[in-house]
Amino acid sequence: MAVYTQKRCLVAKISTLHRSESDAGDVCRFFDQLVGKYDDELRRYLLKMLGNQEDAKEVAQEAYIKLYRLKNPKDIKYPKTLLFKVASNLAIDRMQQKCRIYEQNCHEFDQEVDYSANTEQQVASMEALQYIAQIVQEMPKKRRQVLVMKKFSELTTREISCQLGITRSTVEQHITKALKYCRDRLKAKGLDGLDGQ
Fold first, then answer.
1. Do 80 and 134 have their domain in common?
2. Of 19, 71, 137, 182, which residue has the fewest beta carbons closer than 10 angstroms?
């Protein structure tokens, strides 16, 4: 009963956004059906991507709101596909934002810590991780998305294919090219012992 109440609350929250009265009823019914039909599956998918239930809930809500703000959301031909695509993009944006915050925190921590000879290997590992993050950021957007979804969110090739609307073969090509790019850059920097990690 609590889950149903939460879903109704989400639909009510979405319906408070500005819409004309004549359109509001149809749109509210559309979102009531959309949330009822796909919310559990969407949250499980986002939880797998983000690894955090609160983030999954927030991203799901953001995705519903983005769809609601479309001119005629009830006329969407494939609402589930669009919903998952929007949610996937929002989740990737959130992961990239967390990565940037992590890099900033690492940089601040690096400036505050007085490293001794005993921590030389830890420093080298931290520098290597920062370099890997930089390499990933340099990749084309689609390749970066595929790599993040595969290596960090641990999605299957099939799941990535469905979410990004590309073939499995294209997903595999992106993964192969991304890993080769990482290996080549690490090797050029003299960090080629890390490429298997």
1. no
2. 71
